Structure formats: C-alpha cells, structure tokens
Amino acid sequence: MSTPPFISITDQVAGHLRSEILRGRWSGTLPGKHLLAAELGVNNKTIQAAMRQLEQSGLLLPQGAGRCRLINLPQGHRRHTRSLRIALLVNDKSVDERDKFYLDYRHALEEAGHTIVSLPHSLTDLRFDPTRVAALVRQTKADAWIIGAGSRAVLEWFASQPVPAFALFGNRVGLKIPSVGPSKAPIMAEATQHLIALGHRRITLLTRRAVRLPNPAPGISTYLDTLRQHGLQPSEFNLPDWEETNAGFHECLRLLFKATPPTALIVDEATYFIATMQFLLKHHLSVPDDVSIISTDDDIALSRCDPPVACIRWDFRPVVRRIVSWAANVSRGKADFTQTLTPAEFVPGGTTGPVKGRH
Fold it and tell me: Which of 6, 94, 247, 325 has its CA 20 to 30 A from that of 283?
C-alpha cells in the first residue's frame, strides 16, 4: 500500500491563497498577514512562508517591510495573460505519473489556471528517439511542453523548436532551454569519495542511458572524474549499459555479481534502488556488510528503512515553484531560458560501511 502524499500546512495555505487570487477575490494587493492568519486559523509565520512561495512563483510582488504585497494577476491580464495547454512528457509513465513530485507540480500548474494535456506515450515508450518525439508533438494540441529527464538528443530537438519547452532534469547543460534540477554534480563527488574513504575500489553506478549517452551528464562525469582522481580508471564495470526493462536491469545485476562483484553501488532513482535491494536479498548479500549502497534520491518510499538509506537529498518545492514561474512567463509572452540548480546534500545513512575484511 503506497503512502498518501503529505502536503504541509504552508503548502495548503499557499494553494488556498493562490486559488482565491486567481478567482478574483482580491485585486491590487493581498490583505495583511494578521488578517489572513485570523481568517485561516494559522500563525503569522505560516502566512509569511506561504506568501514567499507566491512571490517566488511571480503571483505576488513585495513592496517592502510593512506594506501589503501587490497581486501580479491584473498586470498579467493587461498584458494578455492566457491559460496554457501544457503537455507533460515524462520519462516512464508507469512510474513517474504515480510519483508525489509529479502530482505536486501538475497540481500547481492546474491551480495557476493551466490545462494539462495527457499524452499516450512516455520517452521510454518512444525509445528517446527525436523523430518519434517530433511525431508526437505534431499530433498534440499543446502550447508548451515539459520534458522529464530527457536525453541529450531529445532536449536538443526541443531546444531547436519554436514551441516553448522546459527541461525538468535531464541532460540539458549547455543547451538553450529553460530547466531546473538539483545540483547533484558536486554531491556525486562527495558520495563517491565517501565510498573510496571506506576502502571501496569496485564501485558501480547504475543509471539510465539518457544521462550516460552519448556524453555523460555533469553528475555522471563528476563520478567518473572522482574515480580517476583516486587512481581508478573507469570502465564499463563502473558505468554499465543495460536494456531499460525489468529483465534488462536484473540481467545487468546478475552479470555484475557473477565473477568479481562490486563492493559498492550508487543507484539512480528509488524504484531501481528497491529492485537492487531485492536482488541483493535474493542472493543472500547483506547491506552494508557485503555491499554498500547509495540512492541518488531521498524518496518517501525509502523513509521507513532502518538503518536510514545513504542518499542524496534535495528539496522539491523550489523545483515546483520554478516550473510554475516558467509557465507564467510563457503565458505573458516573456522569454525565459534560465537554467536553475537547487541545493542538494549527501546524507551518509546506514547502508554504507567499510569493505568487507577491512578494519
């Protein structure tokens, strides 16, 4: 049974204020924090935090201490603000469309007045083929596109098109396409150094083809560079290729552990992390005694683990706000090609330990 999405009181208040502003309850300025706190039955700090969210999305404009915030919606209407039809092209429909993060940013776009266009295929279904993606775009009535974890070739194609497109994660650095994602590159170096300090030399990173080929994304490059800096020459063992199916992933694990197995794994995405843990359990391999393992995401699916999972942690809320801000700019006809990185951190957890036999 999956854990239901948890929405903080601040997010609930921000959502309520956003809805009331969009339906026209207030114009000009938003009432002060004391009035709103009394009306909603929350404290002033919660109202202030909710207002900051709306400022970051562009719906409110600060005027300085002690002054009510300006509502940006009337200005947008004077500049012909319009509701957009936004197509969400995800990496894998079977996983992504059930993810809390996907539901959060979809809901935020809908609350901002936009319509979400459902697509019959994901990037995985289309085999990350730009020709197939182009055919889907031609067949879809959409004003703008958000591409989740796109490959370099797919994002290059969108960057060359007139339709507004936004890269949510993916191999996007250096392209003229607006984007957002956690700043994982330096944290990947920290996680790799953590394993090396524990004596690990046989380290494998399991990640999708889209971020490995044709050229590794920054986080992958940093991982490979860190190995080199410690005298470890990367090979296919450190960054294996595999068919992106369940059978393909488990065959990759089987081959890795057939002869000279890795002593440490870094696994990208929570679903693959859980599948890897199942594989290790099935083959009577203990974590971290036999194998150390790190997840590149701090997913809610891992929150009940004891000891806690070693992971890379980042806050998804600024990512959601950036998506909504981009959509607002597109609706106003404002060019927006900003590439945003949000902070991330490495959390050691309890799934890493010294190489077996090392004291």
Answer: 94
CATH architecture of 185-314: 3-Layer(aba) Sandwich (3.40)
> To 10 degrees, what angle do helices 317-331 and 100-111 make?
30
Indicate if 185-314 has the same CATH topology as 85-181+315-344.
Answer: yes
Structure token pair of residue 183: 């700043």
Task: Kindly report the length of the chain.
Answer: 359
Give the pLDDT confidence score for residue 333 in this predicted structure: 79
Helix/strand/coil (H/E/C) assignment for every residue in 192-209: HHHHHHCCCCCEEEECCH
> For the residues of 138-153, what is the DSSP string, one character each?
HHS--SEEEEES--HH
Report d(CA 32, CA 299) in Å as an integer: 36
Q: What is the pLDDT of residue 80?
A: 43
Instruction: Enter the CATH code of domain 9-78.
Output: 1.10.10.10
Measured in Å, how far apart are the chain's first and last C-alpha atoms?
A: 41
**What is the pLDDT, as a whole number, of residue 28?**
67
pLDDT at 73: 64
Predicted model pTM: 0.75
Query: What's domain 85-181+315-344's superfamily in CATH?
Result: Response regulator (3.40.50.2300)
> Whole-angstrom Cα distance, residue 355 to residue 288?
9
Of residues 310, 26, 101, 102, the one with CA closest to residue 188: 310
In this structure, are residues 185 and 218 in contact, taking their beta carbons and an 8 Å threshold?
yes
Residue 39 CB neighbour total at 10 angstroms: 11
168 in Cβ contact with 148 (< 8 Å): yes
For the chain, the domains span 9-78, 85-181+315-344, 185-314
User: What was the pLDDT predicted at 180?
Assistant: 96
pLDDT at 23: 66
pLDDT beyond 70 at 358: no
Helices and strands (DSSP H and E) totals, the chain: 13, 13
Residue 113: its pLDDT value, please?
87
